[in-house]
Structure formats: structure tokens, C-alpha cells
Task: inverse folding
């Protein structure tokens, strides 16, 4: 798999070339190792190790309903109270992060109303603080630590 713009972490990978499986620590099972899954697993590990995000408050491929359609959010981070806190959209490294990628994350967030959105392709990472009421967002200079997300949550 391609080297990413993230620290290197050890992973459990099994299977033959072209059919590799990677162990997902959050879902506690092996999943097919695609370029997008490689980005997701590395980014989740980054959040857990560097950002101190609690693994038990993260959901992988969480279902969300957009109008009448069911979709899956790549990663959904919850607060300690169980409310959605951050939507994360992962793409494979070959996919450029553009407006269409942001639009996808924003569409998920219309249903979830989280205060944060992150998009990544493993090379480029963008984090936004969302003002849901005023339908505005501001780009952040870095991915926030989990405890910094919690301090912004309203009681």
C-alpha cells in the first residue's frame, strides 16, 4: 500500500497479494484491504494514538439516512454522551480532495449535525468547525485533539 502523510503504525494484515485483509480494531474483524480502507485504518489509528480519540466512541461505516436513501459515513465520532461529534470522509490517495468530496461530507452532516467535519485521502487532511445553525464552516489549521472537541460541546 502507498505511504501516507501520517505516522506509520503496525497493522495485522493477512491474505495473498490482491486479496489482503486488514484487521479493523474498531469493528474487531478483518476487512478487505482496499486503498480507501488503508487510508481509513491509518487515519483512525492516528486519531486514537495522536489525538487520544476513544476507540469505543468511534463508528466505522455508520448508517445515516439522507431523505429516503441510506448511506454510510466512513467514520463517525461520538461525544462521551453519545451524540455525533465529527463526520470523517476518507478517500483513497489517488482521489483529489475537492468540492465534491466536501459536498459528500456536508450532505452526511445535514442529517447528523456534527460540529466537525474532516476529509482525508491519507495525503491531504482538512478539518472544519461547523456552525450548524448558520450553515457556515471554518477550516482549522490542524485536526483537533479529542478533548478539545469535547470542550466545545454544549451541555
Result:
Amino acid at each position: 500500500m502507498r505511504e501516507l502523510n501520517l505516522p506509520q503504525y503496525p497493522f495485522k494484515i493477512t491474505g495473498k497479494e490482491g486479496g489482503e485483509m486488514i484487521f479493523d480494531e474498531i469493528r474487531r474483524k478483518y476487512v478487505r484491504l482496499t486503498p480507501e480502507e488503508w487510508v481509513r485504518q491509518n487515519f483512525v489509528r492516528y486519531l486514537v494514538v495522536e489525538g487520544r480519540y476513544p476507540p469505543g466512541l468511534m463508528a466505522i461505516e455508520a448508517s445515516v439516512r439522507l431523505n429516503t436513501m441510506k448511506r454510510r459515513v466512513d467514520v463517525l465520532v461520538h461525544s462521551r454522551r453519545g451524540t455525533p461529534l465529527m463526520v470523517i470522509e476518507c478517500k483513497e490517495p489517488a482521489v483529489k480532495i475537492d468540492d465534491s468530496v466536501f459536498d459528500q461530507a456536508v450532505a452526511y452532516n445535514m442529517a447528523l449535525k456534527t460540529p466537525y467535519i474532516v476529509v482525508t485521502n491519507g495525503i491531504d487532511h482538512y478539518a472544519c468547525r461547523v456552525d450548524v445553525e448558520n450553515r457556515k464552516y471554518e477550516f482549522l489549521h490542524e485536526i483537533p485533539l479529542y478533548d478539545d472537541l469535547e470542550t466545545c460541546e454544549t451541555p
User: Anything to note?
Assistant: The helical segments are 35-49, 99-112, 146-152. Strands lie at 13-14, 21-24, 29-32, 58-66, 69-78, 84-90, 116-120, 125-131, 136-139. The chain has a mean pLDDT of 92.
